[in-house]
Amino acid sequence: MESDALNPLTAYARSKIATEQDLEQMERNGMVVTCLRFATACGMSDRIRLDLVLNDFVACALTSGTITVLSDGTPWRPLITVPDMSRAIDWAITRDAGNGGDFLAVNAGSDEWNYQVRDLANAVAAEIPGTKVSINTNAQPDNRSYRVSFAKYKALAPNHQPQETLKTAIHGLARGLRAIGFSDADFRTGPFIRLKVLEKLQDTGMIDGNLTWQA
C-alpha cells in the first residue's frame, strides 16, 4: 500500500522518494501533482531497453533459445506495458484535485500483473516454442522483490486501467524484435542495456562521473 513505510534499496529508488517529498512540501499554488509509482516497464518501443525483465527474457528466447534467469526465480515483479503506462500518464495529467487530492503518490499498475520472475520466464517459454529456461537456484537472494497493491489506482482511475495481458506483451515484443532483425545473443553487454550505454559514454568522455554531458 502507498501508506506503508518506504524501504528504498537503491540510489534510483532513493532519488524517487526524495522527489516525491520535495513536491509534497513545495508551495503548489493550486497545481495538482501526481507521482506515479510505476510497476516495472515492459513491452516493445521504438527505443527498446532489454535490461527490463520481460524484455530480457523474450530477447533470450529469440536469440539463444534459452532464458537465463540470474536469480533463483522467486522475486516478485509487478509489470506494466508501455501503452498502459501511457494511459496512466494521461489520467495523471488530466485529473483534478477532487480525485485524489492536490498531491498524490499512487502505485500505477494492476494486481493481476504481480508475477514471480520464474513465472515470467516460463510464460515466455510457453509462447515462444523451443525455448528452455535455466534458473540459477544457487543465486544469492535478490532483495529487490516486491508485490504491490494497485487498489488505490483502480479506485481513482477506473477508466485508465491496464488493458494489456502478459501474452499480448510477449507476442508484441517477439514481433517487434523480429521486425528489426534482432539476433544478438550477447545483448546483455550491448547498447540495449542502459548501464552499458552510460559506461561507454563515460569511457569516451561524453559524460562525466555525474552523468553531465561534456560534448
Explain how this protein is built.
Helix 2 runs parallel beside helix 4 (117-127) and helix 2 crosses helix 6 (166-179). This protein has a single domain, classed as Rossmann fold. The chain has helices at residues 11-25, 53-63, 82-94, 117-127, 151-156, 166-179, 194-203; strands at residues 33-38, 40-42, 66-69, 76-81, 103-108, 114-116, 132-135. The chain is an alpha/beta fold. The strands form three sheets. Strands 2-4-6 form a three-stranded mixed sheet.
CATH architecture call: 3-Layer(aba) Sandwich
End-to-end CA span? 43 Å
State the strand order across the main sheet.
2-4-6
Domains counted in the coordinates: how many? Answer: 1
Structural class: alpha/beta
Helices, strands, pairings?
Layout: H1 11-25, E1 33-38, E2 40-42, H2 53-63, E3 66-69, E4 76-81, H3 82-94, E5 103-108, E6 114-116, H4 117-127, E7 132-135, H5 151-156, H6 166-179, H7 194-203
Parallel strand pairs: 1-5, 2-4, 3-7
Antiparallel strand pairs: 4-6
Helix pairs in contact: 2-4, 2-6
